[in-house]
Amino acid sequence: MVPRQIPGVGWFLVTTPTWPHRRGEREVTLLDGVVVRLRRLKKSDIDAVIALHRQLDDREQYMRFFVAHPPYLEKVAEKLVERSATQYAIGAFEDDALIGVANYVRSQDPAAAEMAVAVAHHNHLRGVATALLRHLADVAGRKGIRYFDADVLADNNLMLKVLRDPGWRCTKRFDGPVLHVRIDVSTMDGGSAAPNSGRRATPGECAP
Ligand SMILES: CC(C)(COP(=O)(O)OP(=O)(O)OC[C@H]1O[C@@H](n2cnc3c(N)ncnc32)[C@H](O)[C@@H]1OP(=O)(O)O)[C@@H](O)C(=O)NCCC(=O)NCCS
What predicted TM-score, i.e. pTM, was given to this entire model? Predict the structure, then answer.
């Protein structure tokens, strides 16, 4: 368990595996104490994946897709539930309801992959994105991926908060309103290394 201080609330033990599951699957405890299951998406999840992206508000859709009202959500969902060697998508499930998705798509450079995340509107600030990305990093590290690349809009404060997670070592570069971030997956709760192995970077290193 990783103790974290939530301002004005106190210390909580969060986003740490509570029970070993089948490979690629884990349970985590969120900031509010609720246990959710993280697992790879499959074809039968497609309607839930579409619904999750549809219920993001306009600003959240813009933050995720860089356009308002993306017309291609079905196509995005089809890609996310597809199982292939080039992409991997994880869902967070609370009582079988999908509340968040994180995925990576391998880049031409075999050591790198593009990652993205979206959490259902009413489930923000519970630690869902952090838990998903840590688990995704664990999976990616086992598959030889060393870096996650992400393009984040500079005013996406919530995503910048996620990236500020202490211990995530990264490089970053601004290109107009977009922040290009490259995160070392071995520092994100694992990669293939043991969680909390002591390889900690300076808090705040991964976001401006
Ligand atoms: C950005 C997004 C994915 C974040 O998801 P989330 O599940 O709310 O993120 P988390 O809860 O894991 O973390 C958010 C931050 O709030 C903190 N937080 C969580 N609960 C908190 C609370 N009660 N009080 C204070 N801070 C809290 C977390 O600790 C974290 O900050 P930290 O890592 O610096 O500690 C979500 O807002 C979203 O889906 N946005 C739209 C899509 C998007 O922008 N995607 C990113 C494109 S790359």
Answer: 0.85
